[in-house]
Design goal:
alpha/beta, Isopropylmalate Dehydrogenase, 2 domains, ten-stranded mixed beta sheet, two-stranded antiparallel sheet, binds nicotinamide-adenine-dinucleotide, binds 3-isopropylmalic acid, binds manganese (II) ion
């Protein structure tokens, strides 16, 4: 029996409601596929910040290095400015653990209500590969002349050759691995004069290493429109940190609900743990009501098992999600139903047994 050591960080808001459902389903699939877990939970997040002035303890990153994976809910809550909370927990983990890939599937599940007319699961099935360590999310910059008429705010984007090439190669490798045809690049080289032409240049250079794959590129503005109008055009979409962020909320929205979208913050070198979390945030508007949809969290558990090498168990989770969604199982309000978080988590765990 394999024993997997998992750090669990529910974080904030609905993180505390959906993470237990994610664990419930991991336990159910573990019983079936002979996986054993050691879950260690940490109370890191905004409440801890109010008590101690820190989102996580000073040795938090060191603590996480001992784990096989990190299972996170969401971070950020009203009362703590978002740039403080996210730069105190989520973003440092992504960087310190060298999780330079943020992999986000966009898939319409059978039975999922879709806001686009005449679209079926065959039409909406692609991957967003988001750069996760640099780009627009940089600490370089600052403010001058605070509080005066001359106040200035400057924020630099950072695109290194190393960082750009490795995310582009990851996208092409993924496309080959999953047997799909085309890698689409998100750019904005008409308006962003330095970094985006550089991104395009590297995309063209790296694509030459993959002669059997097709390529395509769009400026981010029309690309967002094409996600809505032609979701069937895409296999793998690769984007910088910010573009990938935006596309990976839009993608799940066209596929039915932001609440079902999973993500994997991957360190492909494997020297440090990767982290698995839903794409959505802490949803303060519904936190505490017990009605959050746990599917994004549960599906993130599947991505975790896939990453750790347990593909069959991972596939079983997605199969169970689809069985419940398409088989008239409980639906949370975001899916048009009245079920609560626990009902949906129970139904998915039951579909595994
Ligand atoms: P959000 O994703 O938390 O919520 C957006 C909307 O989607 C809300 O109406 C919410 O109720 C709904 N929603 C989200 N998840 C849902 C679920 N599982 N079930 C049902 N409905 C769901 O985005 P936001 O409002 O922009 O951000 C709230 C906080 O979360 C902020 O502090 C933000 O910085 C943070 N955030 C964190 C992460 C993360 O930890 N990875 C991601 C996004 C936002
Ligand atoms: C996400 C979130 C985060 C991001 C925020 C909360 C910093 O939106 O994981 O998509 O932009 O990376
Ligand atoms: Mn986001």
């Amino acid at each position: 029996m394999s024993k997997l050591k998992i750090a669990v960080i529910p974080g904030d808001g609905i993180g505390w409601e959906v993470v237990p459902e994610g664990i419930k389903v991991l336990e159910a699939v573990g019983a079936k596929y002979d996986l054993d877990y050691e879950f260690i939970e940490y109370d890191w997040g905004c409440e801890r910040y109010h008590k101690t002035g820190k989102l996580m303890p000073d040795d938090g990153i060191e603590t996480l290095k001992d784990f096989d994976s990190i299972f996170l809910g969401a971070c950020g809550y009203p009362g703590v400015p978002d740039h403080v909370s996210l730069w105190g927990l989520l973003i440092p983990i992504r960087r310190e653990m060298k999780q330079y890939v943020n992999l986000r599937p966009v898939r319409m599940l059978k039975g999922m209500p879709c806001p686009l007319s005449n679209r079926s699961p065959e039409d909406i099935n692609f991957w967003v590969v988001r750069e996760n360590n640099e780009g627009e999310y940089s600490e370089i910059g600052g403010r001058l002349h605070r509080g005066t008429e001359y106040e200035v705010a400057v924020q630099e984007s950072v695109f290194t050759k190393f960082g750009t090439d490795r995310i582009l190669r990851y996208a092409f490798d993924l496309c080959e691995k999953i047997g799909r045809k085309k890698v689409t690049s998100a750019t904005k080289s008409n308006g962003i004069i330095h970094t985006m032409p550089y991104w395009d240049e590297r995309f063209a250079a790296i694509s030459e290493e993959y002669p059997s794959l097709d390529t395509d590129q769009y400026h981010i503005d029309i690309l967002t429109a094409n996600f809505v109008l032609h979701p069937d055009w895409f296999d793998v979409v690769v984007g910088s940190n910010l573009f990938g962020d935006i596309l990976s909320d839009l993608g799940p929205a066209i596929a039915g609900s932001i609440a079902i979208a999973p993500s994997a913050n991957i360190n492909p070198d494997g020297d440090l743990p990767s982290m698995f979390e839903p794409v959505h945030g802490s949803a303060p508007d519904i936190a505490g009501k017990g009605i959050a949809n746990p599917i994004g969290q549960i599906w993130s558990g599947s991505m975790m098992l896939e990453h750790l090498g347990y593909s069959e168990a991972a596939d079983e989770i997605v199969r169970a999600i689809e069985e419940v969604v398409s088989g008239g199982g409980p639906k949370t309000p975001d899916l048009g139903g009245q079920a609560n978080t626990k009902d949906l988590g129970d139904a998915i765990a039951e579909a595994i047994r």
